[in-house]
Specification:
Chains A, B: It holds the Pfam family GntR. Chains A, B: InterPro entries: GntR_C (IPR011711), TF_FadR/GntR_C (IPR008920), Tscrpt_reg_HTH_GntR (IPR000524), WH-like_DNA-bd_sf (IPR036388), WH_DNA-bd_sf (IPR036390). 2 copies of one chain form a homodimer. By secondary structure, the first copy, chain A, is mainly alpha-helical. The first copy, chain A, has 2 domains: about 10-90, Arc Repressor Mutant, subunit A; about 105-255, Four Helix Bundle (Hemerythrin (Met), subunit A) (Up-down Bundle). Helices cover about 60% and strands about 5% of the residues of chain A. Chain A has 11 helices and 2 strands, in the order H-H-H-E-E-H-H-H-H-H-H-H-H. The first copy, chain A, has helices at about 20-35, 45-50, 55-70, 95-100, 105-130, 135-150, 155-170, 175-190, 190-200, 205-215, 220-245, and strands spanning about 75, 80-85. Chain A has a two-stranded antiparallel sheet with strand order 1-2. In chain A, helix 5 runs parallel beside helix 10 (about 205-215) and helix 6 (about 135-150) runs antiparallel to helix 10. Chain A starts with 19 loop residues before the first helix and ends in a 14-residue tail after the last helix. At the A-B interface, helix 3, helix 5 and helix 8 of A face helix 3, helix 5 and helix 8 of B. Chain A binds a DNA duplex (30 and 30 nucleotides) through helix 3.
Amino acid sequence: MKLDETSKKPDETRGPGRRLHGAIAHRLGTDILSGKYAPGDVLSGEVAFAEELKVSRSAYREAIQVLTAKGLVASRPKAGTRVLPRDRWNLLDPDVLGWAFAGEPDIEFVRSLFELRAIVEPAAARFAAARRDKDDLKAMKEALTAMRRHTLTTDAGRAADRDFHNAILAATRNDALKVLSASIGAAVNWTTQFKQRSRALPRNPIPDHVRVYDAIVSGDGAAAAEAMNVLVDLALEDTRSAIEDRDSLPPVGASDALTGS
Amino acid sequence: MKLDETSKKPDETRGPGRRLHGAIAHRLGTDILSGKYAPGDVLSGEVAFAEELKVSRSAYREAIQVLTAKGLVASRPKAGTRVLPRDRWNLLDPDVLGWAFAGEPDIEFVRSLFELRAIVEPAAARFAAARRDKDDLKAMKEALTAMRRHTLTTDAGRAADRDFHNAILAATRNDALKVLSASIGAAVNWTTQFKQRSRALPRNPIPDHVRVYDAIVSGDGAAAAEAMNVLVDLALEDTRSAIEDRDSLPPVGASDALTGS
DNA sequence: CGCACGGAATATGTCGGAGTAAATAGGGAG
DNA sequence: CTCCCTATTTACTCCGACATATTCCGTGCG
């Protein structure tokens, strides 16, 4: 045991159920996404970096394998481990998205995600309207009633919101669409912190969701797509104003322990 | 060194520039995607499996970290390493897509990808028409001329095809869209093997591409989206007929293993 | 008889070191 | 000045040991 009681912990982002190499990957990932390590930069050697992080080479290497699997870095003998250009990153990977939103998210990237969401989600609603069965509709209806009971200010309400969107995705009968939208939705939900930070949601989101639901029930694909389009547009508007508020505010206190999920 | 010359190589998919743990990950990944290991299955212990694969526990563990990073498996002490349910897989990860197409690709999944492509690419063309600059148009024009010179039967021609689509993506000014479409496009190109296997392409793809190009030049977003929509539809038609040809051929495994996720 | 608590077994997680292979940089020969 | 060869640096692989977390099961109590 090389760690004595006086030495500080290797990383503060180390919780239960979170392995050491996962914590290292999280730390390096957020550092890369935040720009601390720019594309083309060469990381210190294995031995040096592992020693600096107070972990063994095994843990460090396993973390590097994770980052390599997500396209963030590449290692070659003699050349070292270097950060890959941004277009090689798997930006749609859930973990990478989480890392991107761990710090101050790039506004341009948020715009990109919302544009993608505005493309994908209406199309998903269109498919759902054409392919849903009774069970799908039942799941949506239950999620809607749950949303009405709890509001979006509670955890249960937000869970119901996710359930509603997930029910739509399940009704599309399209795995690729499902995975993609789930990732984007989760990422977009990271921005919820900004919405809540700036001011409470002034708008009641229930009618928008009901419009989507009604269109899917009646099997009207065009109407479902349009209703979903409106829903996404409103969400974008909320987030945009929240971000602008944030940018006009003084620097946020760094001690906001924002542990994801 | 425990490997002697008489023993068979741990994996035949081991080439230069390909690390050992990468090869292990590739092997396990394809096995999972092909259904050899179904969701919920528990892999043998680290020591046993590593020994079976004729590799050290370190290499095996690093491969598992890669699979974990892509959402295919999850490991917990005492519980072992088990394959996660299919909806946890990062199906849009380039490597996972490659593994999915390494064996006999699932027709339903191919349909999902084409549906997603049909959603995303026209929208990308619409953005490109609105945001492209001179350099973007220049890149597209050069790719088109290269496509005309070499046909799609040559590697250079297919590279030009990719360049054309990449130029459109770059013109969207949307990183998320760029990453996604690049992955999907690469995956769809895996199906090229089926097209070529069945019969030579009877259709000349140049006019379709020129229509997209002209619309983007004139800044007509709606026309660009429609032209791209036609292009994707035709590609889908080609692939569908090629796959049907394959399926009507000798019994490629009559047992449709439909593992309900 | 059923449930809650606690200890033991077991598989993953972490560690440190040794040796191998590969790629770049530098020096030497043509 | 070019080309090839050598040397060095770095990641890659292997090994064996210990630590830790979780599950399982036996025990005791209600």
